[in-house]
User: What shape does this take?
Amino acid sequence: MNVPVNLKYTKEHEWIRVEGNSAFVGITDYAQSELGEIVFVEVETVGESLKEGDVFGTVEAVKTVSDLYLPVDSTVLEFNEELESNPELVNDDPYGKGWMVKIEISDAVQLNSLLSAADYEILIGT
Assistant: This one.
């Protein structure tokens, strides 16, 4: 299971990669492997300001649909439109081309409460 050390993680299996005041968010390698083949990613919150833990979209796999949760208070700036025609990027490259949204972080202090890679590995039992 791939758990990059340069990212922060949530207990709901999202990752966040911070770049200044903005960040990229997606689901972890563990989450995509548990979901199976991703067939659709829906994000209708671009332009909205949401709170930590709010649902920013959904990911649909062959067998299930799962909500996607924001790791920190933020404004959703952009949806990875490449996922509209290639949702399998979430399976193939969850930490790279499979990112889901770009956000503007409202409260960077909240990043301190997220899981480190080591803590996330304990959560998923690797």
Q: What stands out?
A: The first strand starts at residue 8 and ends at 9. DSSP finds four helices and nine strands in the chain. The two ends are 7 Å apart (CA to CA).
